Amino acid sequence: MTPTSHLQPLIRPATEKDIPTLLTLIHDLAAYERRAASVQATAPALLATLCFPSNPTKGYAKTLLIYPPSSSSSSHANPTTQSPTSAREKDASATTPVSSAPKEQEQGEEEAVAAAGFALYYPTYSTWLAAPGIHVEDLYVRPEYRGRGYGRGLLGRVAEEVVGMGDGGGGGRLEWEVLRWNEGAIGFYEGVVGAGRREEWVGMRVEGREGLEGLVEVGRRGGKKGKGGEGG
Questions:
Q1: 78 φ/ψ angles, rounded to the nearest 5 degrees
Q2: pTM of the complete model
C-alpha cells in the first residue's frame, strides 16, 4: 500500500536553485491576470531580493513552492513539514495562461513543470493591533492542479508563520488582495477560507523610479496637508 505521506503535496521554501521555476510561475501568473507585459522581474533581481533558507535575514520576501505527490521525490526533498491542503486559488474555470517567460529561464523549465504553484509573502505590522502579520503578494496554482486544495495548503502554511510570530502571542492577521473580476476566487476565500472583504479601504500606490523620486521631492518641498492620520 502506498504510504499516506506520498499522497500529499509537498510544500517547501524556495531556494536559490528554484529561481528559474519562480520566474516561470511569475510569468504564468501575470498572463492569467492579463498583465503579461508588466513583468520586469529577472533571475538576478529575484536572487538579490528574496529570502532563502540559506540566508533568511537577507531579502525582503519569502516564497513557498508546492509540488503534486508524483513530483515529491528526492529531487524536491526539503526538511520541512508537508501539508495536505491549499489558498488565493485562481478560478478553475479560467483559460489556461500561456507562459511568456523570457529565454533566461529555459534552463529551469523542466523543474518549473513539476511545481504546481507558489506563494510569495512578506511581514507587515498593525499599529491598532500592535502586532506583526503577513501580506501575501502572490498566490498562484497552475490551472491543471486547481481543485485539489493546493491553494488552501499554501495559505495554511503561511498562516502557521503568522501564528508563530511575536513573543509567544502570535501575529495579528494574514491579508492579500484579489482582482475584482475574479469572482470565483473571491467566493472561495469567503466561503471556504473564511476571509472577509475590506470594502472600506482603497488601495493607493506610487510606482516606478520617476514616481518615487517625485514623491521624495514633494516631501522635501512640503505642501498642503492632507487628511491623514489613519492607522492600520
A1: -155, 140
A2: 0.76
End-to-end distance of the chain based on CA atoms, in angstroms?
51
Shortest CA distance to 178 belongs to which of 32, 51, 61? 32
Give Rg (Cα) of the chain.
19
The pLDDT value given to residue 224? 59
DSSP state of 101: -
| CA pair distance 123, 196, nearest whole angstrom | 20
Q: What is the predicted pLDDT for the residue at 203?
A: 86
Give the whole-angstrom CA distance, residue 89 versus residue 65: 14
Catalytic residues: 189
Grid-cell match 518641498, residue found: 221
User: pLDDT tens digits for 130-165?
Assistant: 999 999 999 999 999 999 999 999 999 999 999 999
Q: Where are the alpha helices (DSSP H) in 11-140?
A: 19-32, 43-49, 109-114
